[in-house]
Each structure stands twice: as C-alpha cells, then as structure tokens.
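Revision sheet: structure tokens.
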Amino acid sequence: MHPHGRAAPGPVATGPGMAPSLYDQIGGEEALRHLVEVFYDIVEFEPDGKELLALHRRGHGVAHSRIEQFNFLSGFFGGPPSYVTKHGHSDVRYMHEHIEITAETRDAWLRCMSAAIDRVGLQSVKDQLMRPFTKVAFMLHEESLQRQAK
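Predicted:
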C-alpha cells in the first residue's frame, strides 16, 4: 500500500478454491508480457499512440513503461505483485500525479489497449480487462482535472 493509504482499484487476486485470477485466465506471465508489448508497439508506431508516445518521451520513456506496466498489471490482475515488491505500493494516482491526463490521452490509451487485446486474441476476456482499465482511466483523468483546478 502506498504511504497515502490508497491502493489501485481493480481486480483482486483469488485464493484456492475460487475462480482463477484474471492473470491466470489470460495465460499468465507470457500472455501478459505479450499484451504489454503489443500495446506499447501500438503506442510507439501507430497514429492512435501519438499523444501517448509524446507523454512517455517527456517521462521515463517507453522502454521503462513497458517494464513497469507489466509489473503493475501482473499484480493488478492477480499474479505476482512485482510492482508492489519493487516500489512498495500500487497506487495509480501517485504513479500518474505528474502527468496531465486529458480526455484525449485517456481515450487514446483505452483505444490502444483495446486494439492490443484484440491483436493478442484475448476477446474472450476483453470486457473483464477493459472494465477496470476504463474505470482507472476515467479516475486518473478526473484526478488530473482536480489537480489543474487547484
């Protein structure tokens, strides 16, 4: 948990005897890594990713984001908590507080992820993936607007 006491909203890891985690449903580490790679290939090389690429270039860069997105999503979907182990929290608000997230960049992120899900063949769980992605994207946009208003 982050020092502010907030955790990332999203799927919760499941225990023995319960339904498999979303991490397991998509195929575990290899499938998640492939999804993240395809997503960032879209961001880097396709028109829908143009605005996102500009944001990443002003930050730590795409190579860094490929690693950290995988680490974060692993724990977010019920797999190994790599991001928390490395950073001590999984607070998406804190991770993005230095970024102005506009409606355009929010929507571009969602379009790129939706396309990546389709390309890697995860249509059977697309709604389960996009629901929390959409919730978080809209929350981060609202947080960004609130920071700008101060």
